[in-house]
Prior knowledge:
By secondary structure, this protein is α/β, with parallel strands linked by helices. The protein has a single domain, classed as TIM Barrel, CATH 3.20.20.190. Helix content is 37%, strand content 22%. The protein has helices spanning 32-41, 80-83, 103-112, 134-144, 158-166, 180-189, 192-202, 213-221, 226-232, 247-258, 269-277; strands at residues 6-9, 12-18, 44-51, 57-58, 87-89, 95-99, 120-125, 151-155, 172-175, 208-212, 236-242, 263-266. It has a 10-stranded mixed sheet with strand order 1-2-12-11-10-9-8-7-3-4. Helix 3 (103-112) packs parallel to helix 4 (134-144).
Amino acid sequence: MTNPRYVERDGHRTWLKWHRGRRRASDPAFTGKRLIEAMRLGASVEVDLVVHADHGCAILHDLQLDRETTGSGLVAKARASELRQLYLRGADGRPIPDRVMLLEDLCALLADDLPHPDSLLQLDFKQDAAALDPQTIAGFAASIGPLAPHMIVSGGDAEAVELLAAATPGLRRGYDPCYGASLAKLRSSGDFGRFTADALATAPRADFIYLSYEIVLEADQAGFDMIAACQAEGHRVDAWTISAVNPTTLSQVNRLLALKVDQITTDDPEGLAMALTI
């Protein structure tokens, strides 16, 4: 059976992260079944977090409910009890039987079905530090508790990541600089070395640096190895996101593997692993 966890190339292991909890391209996002399966298997998997009205976090990507769920309006204005009554939508926009989960719901499931020692759940916080108050931070830490060694909190705002990680013993940190002003500055200057140095200076305690795979490959074409630069400072690198498996993306993935990337985020881990072993 194809291993949807990682591939090995020239003595280097690269993990295949299940983006939004998908094992296959046909999977809906953020379903408990797939998340538990990933953690039981020992995979790397990712979910997104958005703060709701009761100072907790919903497992959703968007700040608005309309696209991902059967609800409407802002997640920030929805109560926990309301969110739990909503159904998720599949890729075709139709409701599926799975309901929206909150962070504490997922953690309760994981506590009942203990994760594999190799598993790693990325909690990607989709907002900045302004969305966090002491009650939200305390609730985040309480929800995770002893599961923290199996998790990493990440985001594009290093301050928000630090606030959440500092309150949660054992939780790893991740940072994604490929957003906002820093990304606009890179595209204006083309200075991949400065961009990388700034990212590492912004998040010196980050275990993972999350980089757009397209930016990594653009830098490679320009003669700068962003992956090696991060690894030289003790950080692992995740390249995101391979959405589909086709000849173009396979060529790109093979270059990422040659550069010894530590992890590749993909919406089709199983399909990508199969294509790489044919």
